[in-house]
Design a protein that fits this description.
This protein is of the alpha/beta class. It has helices spanning 57-69, 137-147, and strands spanning 3-7, 17-18, 21-26, 33-38, 44-45, 48-50, 71-82, 87-91, 96-98, 101-111, 119-125, 155-156.
């Protein structure tokens, strides 16, 4: 299913759903960041996805990262809560979802990089190279917050 991200766009359609979701800032021992090239919007992003009934939110992080990248992780802490009502995701089935994402920091504990139906490419990248990737501004905000080790409190916005 394809989607269009609207970010602070007055012509954006009105949201008709909210789905709790997660993203994960995962860095390996050399400081490289785990990113996926998404199939639904053709942008680079942190791995993540929707929270399922019956899951703990930390389990959602572990499941989604593994599903999309092949990497097993352990959750470390929360980067922030991203709930901007001016960021909506319009899917081709008519759903228009208001952003509701909890971003976590996690570290890899195993696995091998692989793609999935949601990721056409998966890479460990040097954070200094981020400008060479097409990343949505809302996702870039999460990445910047997740890479900032001086942040003591989670972002709430």
């Amino acid at each position: 299913m394809s989607r269009i991200d609207y970010f602070r766009d007055p012509s954006a359609p009105k949201a008709n759903s909210v789905v709790p979701s997660v993203t994960a800032v995962v860095r390996n021992d050399s400081g490289r960041l785990l990113l996926i090239h998404k199939t639904d919007n053709d942008l680079w992003a942190l791995p993540g996805g929707g929270h399922d009934i019956g899951e703990r939110i930390g389990g959602t992080v572990v499941r989604e990262v593994l599903e999309e990248t092949g990497i097993r992780v352990e959750v470390d802490n929360i980067v922030g809560l991203y709930t901007d009502p001016d960021h909506v995701l319009a899917y081709d089935d008519g759903e228009v979802r208001q952003q509701f994402s909890i971003c976590f920091r996690a570290h890899p504990i195993g696995g091998t990089l692989r793609t999935s139906s949601e990721s056409k490419e998966v890479r460990w990248i040097d954070p200094a190279d981020l400008s060479g990737f097409c990343i949505h501004p809302s996702m870039m905000l999460r990445i910047q917050h997740g890479l900032d080790d001086s942040r003591k409190e989670p972002y709430i916005g």
